[in-house]
Task: inverse folding
């Protein structure tokens, strides 16, 4: 049976795609550059280096990515303060994991600062999870499998006994490349785009009752 659940963060535990996009657009605007929400779609789930850097490349903009990310995160923190809530089904699913003695980890391409802001705002302390991996800890971000393989190693669970919960095409690809089972949520992309996943649900409230057993 499944021994560990590895959660992506954005679009799985909390929906912040609109807010991080708005923050990045405002950051670019401060540089005198107009960019648009659709510009960011190919880079969802790949971490802020690629999320911001990919758009800069598209427009041929030279960018100090460290400074750009810091400013984006500053704007993002202001935007989300007191406004974020966990997505539907998140507290209940975490309780299911606890009752089944299943280990839990966060495995997000976002930087640590964004991970900590999001978890704090939705009332899930970092200590809720047995391990966390953020985008600063791996060289190769999703769709590479590195983040999920590191999380499994930290939990001391074989990849084939891990269930990944994802919402992004890049994340599903990373989970499958890691040799893990994947439940995709249609919070950011439609089911057709997420078809590589083993199970597709609207959100965690619709996770199958046998999700921890069906892949034995």
Result:
């Amino acid at each position: 049976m499944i021994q560990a659940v590895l959660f992506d963060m954005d679009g799985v535990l909390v929906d912040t795609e609109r807010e991080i996009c708005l923050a990045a657009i405002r950051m670019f605007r401060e540089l005198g550059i107009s960019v648009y929400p659709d510009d960011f779609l190919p880079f969802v789930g790949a971490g802020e280096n690629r999320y911001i850097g990919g758009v800069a490349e598209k427009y041929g903009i030279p960018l100090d990515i460290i400074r750009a990310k810091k400013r984006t995160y500053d704007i993002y923190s202001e935007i989300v303060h007191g406004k974020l809530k966990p997505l539907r089904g998140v507290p209940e699913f975490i309780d299911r994991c606890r009752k089944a003695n299943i280990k839990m980890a966060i495995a997000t391409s976002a930087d640590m600062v964004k991970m900590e802001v999001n978890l704090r705002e939705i009332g899930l302390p970092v200590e809720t999870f047995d391990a966390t991996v953020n985008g600063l800890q791996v060289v190769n971000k999703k769709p590479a499998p590195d983040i999920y393989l590191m999380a499994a190693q930290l939990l001391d669970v074989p990849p084939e006994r891990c269930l990944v919960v994802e919402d992004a095409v890049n994340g599903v690809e990373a989970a499958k490349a890691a040799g893990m089972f994947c439940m995709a949520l249609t919070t950011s992309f439609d089911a057709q785009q997420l078809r590589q996943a083993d199970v597709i649900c609207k959100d965690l409230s619709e996770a199958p009752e046998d999700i921890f057993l069906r892949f034995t």
